[in-house]
Amino acid sequence: MGVCGPDPKVEDLGSPRKQPYPMDALPISYAAQQFRKLIGEKTPYRVVHEPQARNTRPYDSRPTCEGHNNCMPICPIGAMYNGSYSVYHAEAAGAKFVPNAVVYRIERDSANKRVTAVHYYDPDKGSHRVTGKYFVIAAHCIETAKLMLFSADEQSPDGIANSSGHVGRNMMDHTGVQVSFISGDKALWPGRGPLETNVIDNFRDGDWRNERGAYLVHMVDDNQVDLATQLAIAKGYVGRELEEQIRYLASHTVRLFSHNEGLADPDNRLTLSKTNKDILGIPHPEVYYKLPEYTVKSCEHTRGLFRDLIGLMHGTDEEWTPGYFPQDHPAGSTIMGTDPTDSVVDGFCRTHDHENLFIASSSVFSSVGTGNITLTVAALALRVADTLKKELAHA
């Protein structure tokens, strides 16, 4: 993937890592440097480097990050990892990808112990059957659960691998808080460099987690000219004063958001729609989700921290994202566990019900911490791959 980060001997991030990251950390942007001086050097809040899957040297035929500041959702030069690179490597190793294939049925043997085939539609709704020794569902948490539920039949009336009744349950997300404001202190000039290099990590763990969730705070280093222009126009500035205000506001705008810990709740679940279907006749997923009180209390604490930071930076013109700020990191729906009566997969992501069916997805998460979920998904996928290699070697 190409992961960069600080040397743990120089900057302790509180992880068990002993060796340096594969690549040196990203250079701290000007805005991040100013934020560290204003907050990290004058308060008890710990502002640290954030490791990330971004090249700080040429790697995997991809260039070094040039700090273009428009790397979401896709890096314009390929310095930041995305899933397509893994596809290229898989194809080079002999994997076959079938584009525009929508799997709609999972077939089992007569004993209902092993999966024997999957069926998929092509764009014209032509049906195809694919057999194999092992099967891995890697369709993210929503589509994975939807497929497993839709594969119900007389053999498995509640869906595939669902003897526990937990397929579709225990859904989670990274919920957060977001605010932007105008710093009354020195100009930060955000927008020069990668979008994120700094995080506040004081609240990732503590005894208080018995009562409320942990969280991680990001100082976002994106260009603020658009927001500054809207704010200056709303204040009534025109002509030269408008230009001066845009320059001032763009250089002083600070945006903060958080990743707040979530807990698995069986009542937060996905079901199949009884009324809405897609063009192939597959039911739409319907999700019921109520934010856990544990996460609500965490977000309340985050708002208090943000108000403190705004005060420390003599901030004005606060703009809070209404309600809660979703991070679009959904997880859960085929939860991992040791007890087949209340979970769907074991610690190796193998379904309890079918010995040759694995799930490589955020759907197996049993909780959501404070970091972006991608690296954990990758680690679980590697665990599935290692398991398959060992078993196929002895098959």
Describe what this molecule looks like in 3D:
The protein is an alpha+beta fold and 395 residues long. The chain folds into two domains: 182 residues, no CATH class; 138 residues, FAD/NAD(P)-binding domain, CATH 3.50.50.60. The strands form six sheets. It has a six-stranded antiparallel β-sheet. A three-stranded antiparallel β-sheet has the order 2-3-4. Helix 4 packs across helix 5. The chain is globular and about 75 Å long. The two termini are 30 Å apart.
Which secondary structure elements does this structure contain, and how are they paired or packed?
Elements: H1 30-40, E1 47-49, H2 83-92, E2 102-108, E3 115-121, E4 127-131, E5 135-137, H3 140-150, E6 175-176, E7 178-182, E8 198-200, E9 215-220, H4 225-234, H5 239-252, E10 253-260, E11 262-263, E12 269-277, E13 283-288, H6 293-312, E14 316-320, E15 325-326, E16 357-359, E17 367-368, H7 374-393
Parallel strand pairs: 5-16
Antiparallel strand pairs: 1-8, 2-3, 3-4, 6-15, 7-10, 7-14, 8-9, 9-10, 11-17, 12-13
Helix pairs in contact: 4-5
In short:
Helices cover 24% and strands 20% of the residues. By secondary structure, it is an alpha+beta fold.
